[in-house]
Amino acid sequence: MVAVKTDVDLRNQIAALRKDQRNLHASAHILATYFILALQFWILHAYPSWIIYLVSFFVIGFMQYRLVMSTHEATHKTLFFPLRLNEFFGVFHSALLGISFFNYRKTHLEHHKNPQSIEEDIDSYIYRPLLQTKPGLPRLGLLVFGVVVDVAEKLKRKLFGAKRVNENSVGTKNVQGLGLQMIPILICQAGIIAFFSIYLKWWLYPVLWMTPVVLIALSLDRARTFLEHGYQYIFSDQTWKSFAEAPQRTVDIDTNGIERFLFAPFGFAYHQAHHTYLTVPFYNLPQLANLLENHDARYHRRVRGSYVGILVRMIWASK
Fold it and tell me: Which terminal CB of the chain, N or C, has fewer other CB atoms within 10 Å?
């Protein structure tokens, strides 16, 4: 009877975390991102030079990455409340980055299918080749330059939907017509082009907006995905004959505040907690992780350390 009571109490506590719906945390995250972008654009306007362009390339790319992470939270309908506000910012931030929000949602929810193997994971095209590659320089090279393959895959998914490994038919087709989904993207990109043309210089749009999305934001997302979904495979004591047998797993990372802001915003440091209960808002994931660590024997204890340090270990570690 004690075990039953414990299970009931745990479910009630998790339900309370799920129902705790506030906009303060998301607003603070997004306003901070907007402020840094606005400040960087002002610096570009006031002090144009090659060194400012170089610094801006990385600053803008990191802020674009934060916008990408905000669309992930919106995908789960937990960025803002009520739902119409959530959907607005999901579509808006996606369109700023040239992403189809509703196609992304459809595909991403397939990624959360549970249980599933690494081979079944529709997003494993990002991290599976890195796990297959020899550690050291070959894996590092693929991590850095494999972003080109990711871009090609994402473009294909925009046009034709997504499919899993060894799947003959398309797994997730476009949920809306391509033309309809392109409308907010075209509107936002036209606005950004006009802004660059009037306030800065038109040629800075492809250099400092389009290119950082690919080379910075997408690369950061690629590295984070490899770390969070590859860690358990590389460092587990278990061995599997193939990725069809290896379970899709993830981890929580106990890291510093700077990395949580730049590399794992919107609660991504608690990715295992997120995968366990998708509808708990990101600001309650630390509490959820504590609950699961204390009451769920299947839960992997969080990894303590820097994302950068852990990533270096994973690049050089062999299974």
Answer: N
Q: How many residues would you count in the chain?
A: 319
- Measure the CA–CA gap between 124 and 41, rounded to whole angstroms: 36
Lowest mean pLDDT among 151-165, 221-235, 269-283: 151-165
Domain of residue 78, residue span: 2-316
Q: Give one DSSP letter per residue of the chain, joined into a string.
A: -HHHHHHHHHHHHHHHHHH---SHHHHHHHHHHHHHHHHHHHHHHHS-SHHHHHHHHHHHHHHHHHHHHHHHHHHTT-SSSSHHHHHHHHHHHHHHTT--HHHHHHHHHHHT-SS-BTTT-TTHHHHHHHHHSPTTHHHHHHHHHTHHHHHHHHHHHHHH-B--TT-SS-SB--SS-HHHHHHHHHHHHHHHHHHHHHHS-TTHHIIIIIHHIIIIIHHHHHHHHHHHHHHHHHH-S---SSTTTSBP---BEE--HHHHHHTSTTTTTBHHHHHH-TTS-GGGHHHHHHHHHHH-TTSPPPEES-HHHHHHHHHH---
pLDDT band at 13 (very low <50, low <70, confident <90, very high): very high
Task: Quote the pLDDT of residue 272.
Answer: 96
Residue with the larger pLDDT of the pair 194 and 100: 194
% pLDDT > 90, the chain:
79
DSSP lists the bridge partners of residue 247 as: 117
pLDDT band at 157 (very low <50, low <70, confident <90, very high): low
CB-based contacts of 92: which residues, under 8 Å, 6+ apart?
184, 188
Provide the number of structural domains found in the chain.
1
User: Mean pLDDT score of the chain, rounded to an integer?
Assistant: 91
